[in-house]
Amino acid sequence: MTTTFVHLVDWFQKVFIDQFNGWILLGFIAQAFFTMRFLVQWIASERAKRSVVPIAFWFFSLGGGALLFVYAIKRQDPVFIAGQGLGLVIYIRNLWLIANEKRASMNRVD
């Protein structure tokens, strides 16, 4: 084994194994939610044969963003906190706009 490979294995052990705890698990779960939003959007677009942003995209964004925000607070990372905090405002606003649009369409008399 080369010294570089040994250092890489040691780094992997320290980063992914030694420090693993419930907070790291929460971070991975949050990241999985965040990744799901892209899969949902991709599948919806492929089915429609055009770019589509389904409501599920915004719910996965909100769920993943909220969990990542909590994780960022625990890690005390100001860049991560600011980025996820702003994202949450955007996700909530989009869901609010969708709900208003649905309410308005239900109240229309055709």
| Main β sheet profile | none
The helix tally amounts to 4
Number of DSSP-assigned strands:
0
Low-confidence stretches: none
What is the mean predicted local confidence, pLDDT?
92
H-E order: HHHH
List keywords for this structure.
single chain, mainly alpha, 0% strand, elongated, 110 residues
Describe the structure.
The chain has 110 residues and is mainly alpha-helical. It has one domain. Helices cover 85% and strands 0% of the residues. It is built from four helices and no strands. It is elongated. The mean pLDDT is 92.
Short characterization:
The protein has 110 residues and is mainly alpha-helical. The protein has 4 helices and no strands.
Which helices and strands appear, and what pairs or packs with what?
Layout: H1 3-18, H2 22-48, H3 55-75, H4 78-107
